[in-house]
Write a structure and sequence with these properties.
The longest helix has 26 residues. The protein starts with a helix and ends in a 12-residue tail after the last strand. The protein has about 270 residues and is an alpha/beta fold. The C terminus is likely disordered. The protein has two domains: about 70 residues, no CATH class; about 180 residues, no CATH class. A six-stranded mixed β-sheet has the order 1-4-5-6-7-8, with helices on both faces. The protein has a two-stranded antiparallel ribbon with strand order 2-3. The chain contains ten helices and eight strands.
């Protein structure tokens, strides 16, 4: 272990959630990823530069999600498969973080008894795939699945970014962008359409074996640049175009924005667009 790696790991002291979630990820990057490519890994940048403000911000998110779900740090890292971050895919981070972020949103909007499910339900007919969560809203029990969305345009742009450009991109996403009509709304619609089939299977098997009243699929999308944000009306339009057996479709864009849900949930607590 070299000095840089030791310092990065030492910076996790005092951040138990991040230590449990990202220690193996940091070790993997130092041992497997070429130095000139490490800037593409966002958590690595925060940890290796010992950015105290960002470290505290991420620790707060993870701690809040763990508290909502009743999990300690090790259980949390295991439930959400943080071990899968040992990969050469920098965007895998956001696949993993999407579910804890949605758990926080569900709690904020009045859901209770939020439970992170195991990947499969054992049945007499064999193992069946499950949704990500069950939760209660009023008197209704929901099965909730989260799917991440990546647009090919975003992926290709990330690959091209150089270190300084990458740092500017991260800073720009901290701002409150002005949403604009997107030139790739159709691409977004195609991307979410491909997720509906697998999600339907997971939600229906959960409904069958766990006495579910309603099903909900939430797409998590992280635009590469602040200029890539679409207007809320565009996201809602994309959701309304989808045909499925799922009761509610939602879209969460980035870390800080609440999901847009269609049709409105019975509680009326989500910020619905009318």
């Amino acid at each position: 272990m070299n000095d840089c790696q030791r310092e990065a790991l030492n910076s996790l002291q005092g951040y138990p959630m991040m230590d449990a979630a990202f220690r193996d990820h940091i070790i993997y990057i130092y041992t497997k990823v070429p130095e000139d490519q490490r800037h593409r890994y966002d958590i690595f940048e925060i940890i290796s530069k010992r950015n105290a403000e960002e470290l505290a911000r991420v620790e707060c998110w993870l701690s809040k999600a763990a508290e909502i779900l009743g999990l300690n740090a090790e259980q949390f890292a295991q439930k959400f498969d943080f071990k899968t971050l040992r990969t050469d895919d920098p965007e895998k981070l956001y696949d993993v973080l999407a579910e804890p972020l949605v758990a926080i949103d569900l709690d904020a909007q009045g859901f209770t008894s939020i439970n992170k499910l195991d990947r499969y339900i054992p049945t007499c007919e064999g193992s069946k795939p499950t949704a990500d969560f069950t939760a209660i809203l009023g008197i209704l029990k929901f099965a909730i699945e989260v799917k991440t969305v990546r647009l090919e345009k975003d992926v290709q742009e990330l690959i091209r970014l150089q270190p300084k450009e990458h740092e500017k991109r991260i800073k720009s996403l901290r701002l409150s962008p002005v949403p604009k009509p997107s030139p790739w709304l159709e691409d977004f619609k195609k991307a979410i359409a491909t997720r509906i089939g697998p999600a339907t299977t997971q939600l229906e098997s959960t409904r069958q074996y766990m006495e579910i009243d309603r099903t909900m699929l939430i797409f998590y999308y992280r635009p590469v640049r602040s200029s890539h944000f679409m207007s809320p009306a565009s996201y809602k339009k994309a959701l309304q175009c989808m045909k499925s057996k799922i009761d509610y479709l939602g879209c969460k864009v980035g870390f800080d924005k609440e999901p847009i849900i269609s049709p409105p949930l019975p509680s009326g607590k989500y910020p619905f667009l009318k």
